[in-house]
Amino acid sequence: MDASLMADALIQATDVGRAYRQGSATVAAVVEATFQLQPKDRMALMGRSGSGKSTLLHLMAGLDRPDSGSLLWPALGAAESLLPAKIALVFQAPSLLEPLTVAENVALPLLMSGAVVDTDAAVTAALATFGLTHLADKLPETLSGGQMQCVAMARAIVGQPQLILADEPTGQLDRVTGQALLDALLQHLAGTETALVIATHDPAVAERMTMIWRMDHGRLLADGQREVVA
Amino acid sequence: MIWLWLGGLIRERQGRLVGMMTGIALSVALLAALGAFLTQSAASMTHRAIGSVPVDWQVQIAAGASLPDIAKVLAPGVSKQQTVGYADVDGFEAHTGGTVQTTGPGKVLGVDAQYRLDFPEQLRSLVGNLDGVLVAQQTAANLHVGMGDSVQIHRPGLPSAEVKVAGIVDLPNADSLFQAVGVPPGAAPQAPPDNVLLLPLSTWHGLFDPQAVARPDSVRMQLHAGLAHDRLPNDPEAAFVAVQGAARNLEARIAGNGVIADNLAARLDAVRGDALYARVLFLFLSAPGCLLAAFLTIAVAASGGDRRRRDQALLRIRGASRSQIMQLAAVEAGVVGVGGAAIGVGLAALISSMLLQTTIFAGSAAVWVAGAALAGVLLAQAAILITAWRNLTLTTVKDARMALGQERARLWQRVGLDFICLGLSAIVFWRTWSTGYQVVLAPEGTPSSSVDYIAFLAPVLLWLGAGLLTTRLCLIGLGLGRDQLARVLRPLAGPLAGIVAAAISRQRRRITQGIALVALGFAFATSTAIFNTTYHAQTLVDAALTNGADVTVTGTAQAPASAALQTLRALPGVMAAQPMQHRFAYVGNDLQDLYGIDARHIGEATRMSDAYFAGGDATRTLALLARTPDGVLVSEETAKDFQLQLGDALNLRLQNARDHQYHSILFHYIGIAREFPTAPHDSFLVANAAYVSEQTGAAGAEIVLLQTSAAPARVAVAAKLATAAWPGIKVTDIGQAQHLIGSSLTAIDLGGLARLELGFAVLMVAGATGLILALGLADRRRTFAILSALGAKPRQLGVFLWSEALLLFIVGALVGMLTGFGLAWMLVKLLTGVFDPPPELISVPWFYLLALIGVALLSVVAAVIGALRETGVPAVQRMREI
Ligand SMILES: Nc1ncnc2c1ncn2[C@@H]1O[C@H](COP(=O)(O)OP(=O)(O)O)[C@@H](O)[C@H]1O
Ligand SMILES: [Mg+2]
Fold first, then answer.
1. pTM score, two decimals?
2. Does ligand 1 come within 6 angstroms of the Cβ of A200?
3. Contacts of A64 in chain B (CB under 8 A)
4. Complex ipTM, two decimals?
C-alpha cells in the first residue's frame, strides 16, 4: 500500500475491534476490521441484522471508540473533531429533533460546527437537493417516516462533509423512493471529493456503489470488487 | 399479573415512584405535623390561660341566703371552695412612733387558714407569717405599721375594734379579688381599695357579724371555688362553653340566692378568639404548602407519559383490557399512596418531636394524622389514575401531537380562570377590608364565635390566580417573543440561540408549567417567610408594649421606682432610663389609668410607635404634648363618649398626695392614644409628668423604663439587686412578658412551627425547581442523545440545558417572589387582629430569601449537571434506546 495513499486516506483501520457486554456475556460487534477509506469512495456495507454494520459506522464516525486495534483519520484529524463538520452520520432510527422545523433540523450541523456560511442558503439548497423545499417549515411529527429519512439526508449533506456515513437510509422507503433518494444523493456528490458509506441489506442499493463490503458476525469480509456504476 | 407488574414498576420506574412517594410524604407530613401542633397549641393555650386564673368562681351570696346551703349545692361541681367575708369599714388608724395615721375607707376580708393553701396565688407574704391579722402592703405603708403593731378598725355604726398585725402581704390579684360581682359586664372598672386588712375567718365573724346586722349593705359573703381543670376540654372554645354552662347551671340551682363571678370563663373567653386565629393561621400557612406538594406529585405522575403510553400499548398487545390497565394503575397508586402516607406520618412524628416538641399520636392530634394520611392516599389515586386514564385515551397519533406547539387553549384559558381568580380575590379582600379586617369574631361573654373563612379565599385565590396568569403570560410571551428570547440567549448560546429559542418556544406549554410550579413554590416560601418574620417582630413589639420597655421597674405610689432612677441609670447594660408615672384618674365616673411622661425623652427608653397614636405620627403627637403642659391624650372611646373636640378643656379627678382625696384638675384634650407601653388595652390617659406632679403634689414616678444594650434578662437581675432595698419594687423584662401574655396568640411559641414551615418551603422550592427540571430533561433524553450523536459538544448540549433551566428559574423565582410579597402583605392585613398593635411595615427576611434563591439555584445546577452527565454516556448507546 503506497504511502501517499495512506496519508490521504480518510480512514485507516487496523484490527479494529468493539465488544459489548450484554449481561454476563460479551458480544463482539466488530472483530479485527482492517480497511482503508479514500476520498470519493462509494462503499456499500452489507450484512444481516446484528452483523455489526451500525457499530462499524459509529466507530468510523468517531462516535464510538474501538476496544482494540487502531483507528485513524489521517486526512481528517482527531476523533473528537469529526462530527458534524467533517463527517456526517445518518442514523438508522428517526433522528429529527421534535421541537424544531425541518429547516431548523437541517441547519443544526452548520450551527453546531460554527461554519461561516450563509446558513439559510445552504439549508435551502440542501432541501432542494432532495425535493423537500415545501416541507421547510413543517415540524417532524407531521412528516412520514420516509420524509424524515430524506430530511436526515439533507441534514447530512448541508455542511459539505468529506465523508457521509448512512445507516440504512432507505430502510423506511419503498424501492422507488429509495432509488430516487439515492439518485439525488449521488448526483449531489458527483464531482466532489466526498466519500460515502451506506450500510444496507438491499442489494439494489448496494449495486449503486463502487465497492461492497460484507459483514458477518462482526467480521468484515471485503469483497474488494469495484463495480463501475452506470 | 399484578405482582409481575409491580415488580416491573419497582425495577423500571423507580425514579417516578420515589418522586411521587416523596411528594405525598411531604404533603402528609406537613399536614399532620401542623395539625398536631395546632391541637397541641390550643391545649397549651387553654392550660396556660386557666392556670393563671387564681380563683375560678366567686359566688356572692345574696342577702339573707344561707351560705352552707349554697356551699352544699356547689360542692359536687368544684374541686375546692372557701368562704370569704367582705366588710366595708370607714377607715383604719394606727399609732406608731409617736404619730397617728388614719386612712380613708377600706375593706376587711375574712379568710380561713386553708384559703391560702387552696388559692396560693391570692396572698404573697412580704413580712411576718400568714397566720393571724394581715395588712396589705400599701395599707401598712399608709399606716406606718409593721409586725406586732396595733391597728384600729373603724366599723360603721359600731365601736372601733383593735387588732394586732401578724404580717404584711401583697395581694397580686386585687382586681379580681375585689371585683363587683353581679354588675353587668362592661360597667366601669372598680379600682381595688387602697386599704385592706385580712382577718382569720373566726375573728372576722366576731367583728363583723354584728356589723352585718347593723349595716347589712356593708358586709357580704363569697364562696371562692376552684374547678378541676384537668377535666376541661382542651379547646378554649369548648372549655369556655363547658365552664359557662356549668356556671349557668349552678346559678339556676341556687335560684337567685347567689351570683357568680365566672373568672375562668372570662379568661377562656379572651383566649377563644386567639385560638380561632391560630386555626386560621394554620389553615393559611399550610394550605398552599399542601397544595404545592400535591401539584408536584401530579407533575411527577404526569411526567414520563411516553413511557407510560408504551407500557400501556405493550399491555394491550398482550390482551389487557382498559379496565385491567386502570386496575393496575390503581394498584400502583395504592402502593405509592400507602407508602407515601406511611413515610409522611413517620416524618411528621420525627418533625413533631424534634421541632415542635409535641407528639402526633396524642388524642385529638391523631385525628389530624389520620386525615392527612387519608388525603395522601387519595391524592396518589387521583394523580396516577387521572394520568393513566389520559394516556389511555390519548394514544392516537393525533392526540399525541397535541403535546407540541400550536394546540388550542385550555378550558381555563378560554374562560379566563386566572382573571376570575384575581378578581374574586380582590373582591373578597375588599369585603374584608371594608369591615376593618374582622376575620375572627368572638364577642365577649357570648358562647358564639365565628371565623370568616371566606376572607382567606383572598390570598388563596391570589396565589392560584397569579400562578395561572403567569402561565398565560408565559405562554403568550414564549409564543410571540421568540426573537427577543433568542436575543437574550445570544451571549449564552451563540449561533445556536435562534434554535434554542425556537425549541423553547415550541415547548412552551411544558416549560410554562414548570415556571408556574416554581413560581408557586417561591410565592409560598416568600410569603410564609415574610409573614413569620413580621409575626416574630410583632411579638417583640407586643411584648415591649406589654412590659413597657426592655426592662421595667415598677414601684408603688408610696415607693416610687423613680427613687432608684440614678442607681438604675448607672447599671451596666442600661442605655437609657426614663421615669413614667402611673396614677389613676376619674374621667366622669370612669376610673382610668393615667400615665405621666416626659414627652421629650420617653422615646429614649421605649419605642414610641406611630401606631400608638391616632394620626399615626408619634413624633408629632409627643412634640405637641411637650408643648402643651396641661395637654392630655385620651382613648378613642373616651373621646367619643365625652364628645371631645381637640383643644377642649377636660376635668380629671386625681388623688392628691396631701389629703389622699381626689381633686379636679384641668387638662386640655390634644389627641388620641391607642396603645401605650404598660397601658391596658381599653381606656387610659397620657399626660405630662411635670404637670401631674405639680397638681397632685406627688413628684415620684411609679415606673422606670430601661432600654438595654445587654440582654434584658441579665439587666433585670442587676436591677432587682439594685432595688432590693426598696420594698415592693418589681422588675420585669421583655422576655418574661413574652411568656406571660398567656392568652395572646403571639405568646404561642411559633419558633418550631416557623422552622418547620420555612424548612418545608425550602424543600418545596428546591423540589419544584430541581424536580421539574430533572423530569423535563429526562423526558427529553432523546433530544439530547440525538444532539450529541450529531456531534454536539458538551458545551453546546449545556446551552440547551442551561437556557431552559435558567429561564425556568429566573422567571419562576422573580414572579414567585413578587407574588409572595403581595401575599404576605395581604396576610398581614387579614390577620391584623392577631397583632396588637398591627405592624407598620412587613419585615422581610432577606437572609432567608437569599438562602432560598441559593438552594433553588443549587437544585437547578444539580438537575442540569445530572442531565449533562447522562449525556456523557456514549451517545451511541442512547441512540439505540430511543
Ligand atoms: N450498546 C450495545 N449494547 C449491547 N450490545 C450491543 C450494543 N450495540 C450493539 N450491540 C450488539 O452488537 C451486535 C451488532 O449490532 P449492530 O452494530 O447494531 O448490527 P447491525 O447494525 O448490523 O444490525 C448485535 O449483536 C447487538 O446486539
Ligand atoms: Mg443497524
1. 0.77
2. no
3. 874, 876
4. 0.91
